[in-house]
Amino acid sequence: MTKQDREKQVRIRKRVLSAGAAAAALAFVFAFRFVPSREHMDGSAYFGISETGVGISIDGEPSGTAGILIGDEPFVDYESAAKLNPSVFYDEKEEKLIVTTPTEKVVREIPDGGAPDREVVKDGETIGLSTDFLGSVTDASIEVFSDPARVVMRTKRSYVTEQLKGDAPMRYRAGRRSPILADLSEGSRVEVTDVASDGSGSEHKVRGWTRVVTEDGYAGYVEDRFLTDPEEETRSFENPVGEYTKTRLGETVNLVFHQVTDQASNQALSQSLDGVSGINVIAPTWFFLDTEQGDITSLASSSYVETAHAAGLSVWAVLNDFDGQIASAASTEAALSSDSTRTRIVEGVTQGLIGSGADGLVVDMELIRADSAPMYLELIRELSAVCRREGIVLSVCNYVPTFTGYLNRAEQARVADYLIVMCYDEHTAGSKKAGPVASLPFVRKGIEDTVRQVGKDATIAAIPFFTRLWQTDGNGTDSRALGMSAAKLRMEELGMTASWDEKTGQEYAKTEADGSVWEIWVEDAKSIGEKMNVIRESGAAGVAAWKLGLETPDIWDVISAKLSS
Questions:
Q1: What percent of the chain has pLDDT over 70?
Q2: Model-level pTM?
């Protein structure tokens, strides 16, 4: 064999080996990508728990936290319990577990450790609720399974199932290489969570796969080709706490706030109502937070209620945290921080409401920071239980969502009857730049954002009967709040001429006088009419106005005409 022949044979062998290696690599890639995995995921890994932990499933989703196992009894961890039932609240200051139902407040002390027969336990830093206790205060189905220990909780009574038309693996993720959570049998039915009742896909559907949930708490994916025959089914379980019923006015709300500062203001109600027409609710400022221990000053008056009722008006008394002896966010937080102080607030307000015969309560606490929001929501829940028992309408005031997105309006609306969105203070006394108190775009967005979160039936839009006159000079920009008549008079004194500003939906005026630049965005019958158009078009439950005495007489006809049309 010549040298050239030997070199040729070497080259051929190299090409054969290279082709074989490529084929092997291709086969490996094919197997990795397309041959279904038979690996099974361990249940503890799925729930993210150790041997001593308890897996938690809520409506087909692992909660992300672990419960406590004491002996053989599982306890649901506080975080999971609060996800299942938003009324579960931990009072950190007094170490109490509180669950407020539609009509009652259930309180349990939290001990360290404890025997399995305790309703609430504490293991290290983890608070646990027994399944029996949680089930007694929650509208949910709660089941316990073993291997691994897990609690499966469901709040939905209606759901969709489909039937398996062959044995099929349910995988952790949508894909044949994903590990198997369960092997499903032909003919069995599974709950599906990403298709509609007619079998069509939802916006969350993964192409070729359907997300399903098993009765024992696992959620994963099955190929569409294994599923057929979608059906609506119902799950039956008892509601041990009753419904969050709503106490509503029964007609479109037309409310005006009445700033009451003493009993003389109460006694002057008839004079204050002179010339007022169309309203069906008056809201006197009666309850003021006075101490960080939750003490309340009350100006509640039964004679005021009798006068209002004689005039055909409901009385919704106002609780606020800025007109009393304390007026800071830190003081409000202190007063909300424990069960004892919140209880004192609830009792003080309740005595005034029931004693006077008032029809409703308006909570207007405006010094709530993000850190104190959970405690504030607990106060709303506790007031809700009392109001529902007594047939008292409960409303909660909020500034527009843009300013206070942390206040969880959905939770407020779950327990309260109305949310009043205060569509003013777009610019305030502390603003460094002049601007309107309530421009039309600001009002519209505030209402739309609130309706989007809580629904139109729960939304009352509050508008201002005041504006601000702005003064800018060498010292900066300052302003003064003025009612409608006072604003008109001051404009005349300064020689200001207003013209309509389409952008803000208000008359606007600007002038120079006394070494200053003066600006004003006017609130009058025309601007109020534009706001009322927005309120009417939104379908909101009504209107509220701050405050009685700042309006001009023509305002009442405008509001009534817009509401009735």
A1: 92
A2: 0.91
